Amino acid sequence: MARQFFVGGNFKMNGSVESIKKIISYLNDAKLDPNTEVVIAPPALYLLLAREHLKPGLEIAAQNVFDKPNGAFTGEISVDQLKDSNITWTLLGHSERRVILQEDDAFVAAKTKAALDGGIGVILCCGESLEQRESGKTIEVVTSQLKAVAEQVKDWSKIVIAYEPIWAIGTGKVASTEQAQEVHAAIRQWLKKELGDKTAEETRIIYGGSVSEKNCKDLCKQPDIDGFLVGGASLKPAFVDIINSHLCK
Ligand SMILES: O=C[C@H](O)COP(=O)(O)O
Q1: Catalytic pick among 59, 103, 164, 246
Q2: 78 Cα to the center of ligand 1, angstroms
Q3: Three-class DSSP category at 106
Q4: Residue 110 confidence (pLDDT)
């Protein structure tokens, strides 16, 4: 079974009511590859605005969700609150949260479990630092981040794995097609070993890190790259070219 191409747009802490409405109306009017699953992740404050304006068929992700159902957790958002707002996906484990906000593997795993148990799809981010890559630890780091989740979650059918080397995020320094393919293939091997053939064949593994309308066409030709998680370029018209890059696969 061919895996459906998946493109996520992570707006991070960018945008305003006006600019997000503008991006959405651009996406609504654009001719998008109907075979690509498209999910945008605006800041939490704009999730409802996005759901109200984005056309059906295009989905919305939160950039984070908490692992507790409700209560005294100032600043957090629950899985049920996302569902109540028709938000169907969440990002989890983004390196900016792992590094800046010090989220560890166990916390990312607990949040992934809570989201999936509540019926929310998870774009699960993993990736190594430059130091880890240079010391040959890339595969070890990435698989140990995934292993923490596999200890709590057996059904990965609503997980999309986003491989995002930290050194490529927002730096303009994209991983080469070979570097990206090598890690994606290793992740697929790991899925096969830990979770079986079916999970390995069906799980989408997308690449993130300085993806642009220029480099996406070569990256998407790689057999284990099933789409992209796009930061900076998702705020620009170029996002449409990235969504449609699959057409040249
Ligand atoms: O979530 C998206 C990634 O962090 C990539 O961001 P970027 O495309 O700006 O490098």
Answers
A1: 164
A2: 24
A3: helix
A4: 98
User: What number is the average pLDDT over the span 179-196?
Assistant: 98
Residue 59 bears catalytic tag: no
CB neighbours of 180 closer than 8 A, spacing ≥ 6? Answer: 163, 207, 219, 222, 225
Cα(70) to ligand 1 centroid in Å equals 30
Q: How far apart are CA 111 and CA 157, in angstroms?
A: 16
Active site residue 128: no
Contact (Cβ atoms closer than 8 angstroms) between residue 115 and residue 65: yes
In this structure, what token pair is assigned to residue 153? 């979650």
Ligand 1 atom with the smallest distance to the CA of 10 is 1
Q: How confident is the model at residue 40 (pLDDT cuts 50, 70, 90)?
A: very high
Q: What is the pTM of this model?
A: 0.97
- The interface predicted TM-score of the complex, written ipTM, equals 0.99
* 76 vs 67: CA distance, rounded Å: 9
Collapsing DSSP to helix, strand or coil, 123 comes out as strand
Q: Tell me yes or no: is domain 5-29+36-248 CATH 3.40.50.1820.
A: no
Gyration radius (Cα) of the chain, Å = 17
Protein residue closest via CA to atom 7 of ligand 1: 231
pLDDT (tens digit per residue) in 114-137: 999 999 999 999 999 999 999 999
Domain regions of the chain by residue span: 5-29+36-248
